[in-house]
Amino acid sequence: MSDVSIPPKVLEIADGIKTMRIRGAGKIGRAAAEALKIAAEEYNGPRDSSLFKKYIGRVADILISTRPTAVSLPNAVMFVLSSLRDQYGFDEARSAIVGAANRFIEESLNAVKKISEMGAKRIKENSIILTHCHSSVAVNTITEAYRQGKVVKVYSTETRPFYQGRITTTQLLNNGVPVVQIPDSAVRYVMNDVDYVVIGADTIASNGAVINKIGTSQVALAAKEARVRVYVVAESYKFSPITLVGELVPIEFRDPSEVVPEEWLKQHPGVKVLNPSFDVTPPEYIDAIVTEVGVIPPQSAILVLMERLGWALEKIKQGLSISTIRFEDLLE
Ligand SMILES: O=P(O)(O)OC[C@H]1O[C@H](OP(=O)(O)O)[C@H](O)[C@@H]1O
């Protein structure tokens, strides 16, 4: 069965996520849904539902293994796969995957729009905002607040080592928003000037802790010291069901060459480099999380999990853990 080949476009998406050509938690989730859709449409094996499900499971496993931290990835995959029913024949199974993938992508884009509108409402006139890394939800929220005439300036951190902050800076600039690029180390220096920190999230734990780009917790610490409000803008599929049963969110560590050039490392062979991609900001450092289902205090994260990801909780209760799951074995 493993002979049924996986379409090159699907492998290209998986590689794009791994190498961060495709990045940003929401985009990763939508790309995974798109990949499952392509895999279903271009399946060229026998028209047998159990072989098809096993093949889709194999694709799901490849997608999930690309990056570990953003829960939007496994949540998107689980959303699409949970459309399969035991009694489905081949055609039904194939169209269930395509339909669910389309639904995920559409609902995801709608959620981003809704959050931007709700988030912009929380910003007062004449505000100075600081953002960290590149979150498409944060960029949309800030842009919407700017269109409503509320934003006078945005500080955008460069976000070493991958410099996603430069994407934020150029996107805001293209949207007409006055933006100032700062190095990450200047966050505390400017914080007394700032009215709001607006950031995205890769994963939100059931206790309201936010896992976001490395450096976020330092930004939140500086904001707390200066009594600046911190808003997290994130879709409900960024809430992690496995954290409800005590599992930790895995933090991704990336290659040392993102931090220092390989040439420099060769010249200094004794130097060890640590390159964590994400950190954890505790709920006490966050004023509100803006989701498409409402604005909540971080301590209410569990309610979003119950309301939006009840289907995933059912699977977890049955003993499934997304971090150890192999969809290929499951979908026989
Ligand atoms: O979904 P949106 O809001 O676009 O992004 C959410 C988060 O995803 C990004 O991770 P990476 O750059 O893929 O490591 C950043 O940490 C960003 O805050």
Automatic annotation (TrEMBL):
Chemical reaction(s) catalysed: alpha-D-ribose 1,5-bisphosphate = D-ribulose 1,5-bisphosphate
Top enzyme class: isomerase
Transmembrane segments: none
GO MF assignments: ribose 1,5-bisphosphate isomerase activity; S-methyl-5-thioribose-1-phosphate isomerase activity
Gene Ontology BP annotations: L-methionine salvage from methylthioadenosine; pentose catabolic process
Keywords carried by this UniProt record: Carbohydrate metabolism, Isomerase
Family: Belongs to the eIF-2B alpha/beta/delta subunits family. R15P isomerase subfamily.
HAMAP family found in the cross-reference section: R15P_isomerase (MF_02230)
Additional record remark: Reaction proceeds via a cis-phosphoenolate intermediate.
Protein function: Catalyzes the isomerization of ribose 1,5-bisphosphate (R15P) to ribulose 1,5-bisphosphate (RuBP), the CO(2) acceptor and substrate for RubisCO. Functions in an archaeal AMP degradation pathway, together with AMP phosphorylase and RubisCO.
Protein name: Ribose 1,5-bisphosphate isomerase
Organism: Desulfurococcus amylolyticus DSM 16532
